[in-house]
Amino acid sequence: MLMRSRAPRRSTRGTRQLRVLMPRGLAGLARESGIGAAMRHQETVVRSLGHQVVTNPLHPFDVVHLNTPFPDTAVLARWARLRRRPVLVWAHSTEDDFRDSFPGSNRLAPLFRRWIAHLYRRGDAVITPSSYSRELVSAPKYGVRRPIHVLSNGIDTDFFRPDPTARGRLREQLGLAPHARVVISVGMQLVRKGILDWVEVARRMPEVTFVWYGRTDARLLTSDVERALASAPRNAIFPGYIRSEQLREAYCGADAFCFLTKEETEGIVLLEALACGAPALVRAIPLYREQLPDGVLTHQVGGDGPEFAGEVVRRLTDLLEGRLPDLTGAGRSAAEALDLRVIAAQLAEIYQLAGVRPHRTAPR
Questions:
Q1: Quick one: pLDDT at residue 296?
Q2: Which of 20, 131, 250, 333 has the CA that lies 20 to 30 A from 290?
Q3: How confident is the model at residue 361 (pLDDT cuts 50, 70, 90)?
Q4: What is the DSSP string of 107-123?
Q5: 312 neighbors 258 (Cβ within 8 angstroms)
Q6: Which pLDDT score, from 0 to 100, does residue 271 have?
Q7: How many separate helices (H) and strands (E) can be counted in the chain?
């Protein structure tokens, strides 16, 4: 989520330059979220293909990328249709991952689903980051009849890469002893992201330092998250939102990445952790059971409820003590398979399938 990718090598051979509209508008509100990271990745990929990124919808464009569930998305889709330009809508959000997020989100989830379904139906093609999320938005209740393509948000594996020297720097930055054990997680502070379980695990493992990077506007915190943050043990640290270079240091220097999210359409932060060679322990949600199998690419803990935190403590202790297999090499390979260079080639194919082509600009 907290990422600034470096551009992969640009290749324009055999391509005709497109003007790709990626409007700013209300999208700035999502800057610190996974959608914000995905949009930055898209800009990197589009430019690597030799195309031009346009941010002003009043300027000439050949195709529009729409990513956010905000009201201006519907307006921009209509504007592109009036100009007879293809509309590509990214389905980052679902009803399922809207739940357990902000105050009132569970009550509003059915309304949110109807709204995003309306947005997704505005696209000439819908792009979603995983087969799991494609299955969700293909359900009849979304009513999407346009082609739905799977395209990972991708990962810059040149930037996010293992660095053994980061271990000492991370502990120095946190004011810890050189051999202190550090477990991290990254994301907004939401029930859905598993922060309640994460704080409880930290409480049960006082000998380990737990660090949660990322933040949520205090006005959007649910009461149970507020209580968890206020009562968190001293070994739980919340530095807030940090720069991508600092986040890379954290991934590379941590003893484990503990990601207890309850629902994801992909989870860019997990790809970043795997790319950096961080041992990963995740909740066994359907997406990760299918795509990052337990004992193959990640270590997983299933279930929920009162027993869950205890099981996480047991598995995390085994991971820190070296009693679980080392999966970091396989995790790095999985991240490399989703490198932005790979994603660029796949996006070019989607452009072809959607009939995206350069348009001549009318003379003034």
A1: 96
A2: 250
A3: low
A4: HHHHHHHHHHHHHHTT-
A5: yes
A6: 97
A7: 14, 12
C-alpha angle with apex 314: 311 to 319, nearest 5 degrees? 125
- Between CA 327 and CA 237 the distance in angstroms is 26
Confidence band of 174 (pLDDT split at 50, 70, 90):
very high
In sequence order, what are the beta bridge partners of 280?
257
- Cα(346)–Cα(124) distance, rounded to whole angstroms? 17
Closest CA to 271 of 209, 349, 197, 186: 186
Question: Coil, helix or strand for 257?
Answer: strand
| CA dist list (Å): 201 to 33, 207, 294, 350 | 24, 11, 20, 43
Q: What is the mean pLDDT of residues 282-287?
A: 96
| Burial degree of 197 (CB within 10 A; 0-12, 13-18, 19+) | buried
Strand 148-150, strand 52-54: pairing: unpaired
In three-state secondary structure terms, 228 is helix
Please report the DSSP string for 24-80 in residue order: -GGGGGGTTSHHHHHHHHHHHHHHHTTPEEE--TTS--SEEEE---SHHHHHHHHHH
